[in-house]
């Protein structure tokens, strides 16, 4: 039996749509005993004491105790699939590299032990084969079932002038790694020497080095790993880089889940700890923030007398610009789904407090207001781009200062919003108010995908349409719905737009279109299937057509193009960190490699990821894993970039783990939503 990637995804969706059987312990004398000691009732009553609201720092011990109980509970009931310990791909046949992937083997498909992923394009397609039995002729046991994903060999999928960088040629770690880290603050729990040893041995692969640094970046709270430092630069001032950022932890969490065997504990602890922080009362001056707001970051504070560890969280009150992180809650939901997908530990997502945490996040976004659009109105600096990138003016003249940037309805947030809605849709239980919330989610998913697919999409034909727009149209028959004045189209877009390709533009609101390219929004749109299949293909076409601009010498441009001169002064407010081609203003961020890799595998063009990974491998480790690069092609290490930036390292690991085993993609990707897919909005035929 042979299945395509699309069918495999469909199976995943179907299995998610079906309610999972509740994992309940065997009843003993009317109640259920857990781990030979606790009854289920005792456990429930312990859970009830876990009031998410207003838990003070000192009460954390009680929460920890509960977490322990939950761990006991889950350890009895969990079905964690046995993973193959084989990480090395089988020897490539003439056409394929064969990769073991047992993680997603489904018990219900015992006989389907070999599968392949078939992409949309023959050139980069991932193929599948199946065999009915194991080598000895016996049907494979469910837990032994394995999927073998066959990825076309690099020779056949690479374009003529591109070859795969052999793993062994990865550059040696920067010689400064060991010595610099030796002097690093003991509070960061670095054990000096191991990295130096790594450097001295000279033969360690970049991945091994990456794992070592990631391990050193673990943050412990009461003896348990709960996240990772944002950076461990031994020279630069720590500022808030010695904190665990929610968004930064996502690639680390994914790397831990994709690892063989997976390291799930840190992800679970992170999810529970941030959930606990969500329960705090959040105040900035005299104003109380919404209940559902998740922290941007947190840190563990050590007190010497008496010895005590406490958590300190930032909900935007300490952040530059005092903006709450809208993306944190969405990432939290997304990584919760990844955790569930990897471990099949449904009990975590089904915990009442986890269900409540999800609902609180969604309530922040789904409440009624004066909105006329399904998109989410955001303040500047509320996501990865956490500094001002917005214009105070709306000068719609040929001077091209008509940016709305991050303020308004940024694609970065809209795509994450959509992704989180769909992930939550899979995990929310319909009990009590759940059913009503699920209905609201369904409606928003439909409206949001229509709005983004229709009004954010830009390709050659659509650009030409906007260029010819009439203005001041009134009523439902208006073509130029937002009264965009064609003179506000910046000159660069006409040159940038290829005949083949397209993308979701940065922001759309009345009379304002920010035509800039933002990578996170576009890749998340592909992963969440907010982009239609043809739009997703067109985004990848654009990346290939504009490789020098969007990838350059060091992947990947966070936004394109850079704001310069007067435009930079107005839009960024003279921000010295966001000068042209630096930081958020056209800088290149290695962390984004994992998003590009996931998106390119999803649409069957892994050669795009491989080209980008090859570039990263030439410099990232040698340069000390910087946070970002500067310059039009990303040639220079960013002027204020931290070294040993954890998410630069984790982004590389996730990209490698996905290329090595494309089935890892299922942890962070959703198939098209059949309900919203019709009527299909295709990109205009521009080539
Ligand atoms: C910078 C980035 C932000 C990131 C933080 C920690 O402020 O702009 O996205 O979360 O550093 O790495």
How does this model look, in words?
Residues 1-35, 104-148 are annotated as: Disordered. This is Alkaline/neutral invertase. Invertase that cleaves sucrose into glucose and fructose. InterPro entries: 6-hairpin_glycosidase_sf (IPR008928), 6hp_glycosidase-like_sf (IPR012341), Glyco_hydro_100 (IPR024746). Belongs to the glycosyl hydrolase 100 family. This protein is an alpha+beta fold and 687 residues long. It is 38% helix and 10% strand. It has 23 helices and 21 strands. The protein has a 3-stranded antiparallel beta sheet with strand order 1-2-3. It has a 3-stranded antiparallel beta sheet with strand order 4-6-5. Strands 9-12-13 form a 3-stranded antiparallel beta sheet. A hairpin with a 2-residue loop joins strand 1 (27-28) and strand 2 (31-34). The two termini are 37 Å apart. Mean pLDDT is 75; it is low at 1-204, 391-402 and 680-687. The chain binds alpha-D-glucopyranose. Alpha-D-glucopyranose (GLC) is lined by residues 230, 245, 247-248, 384, 386.
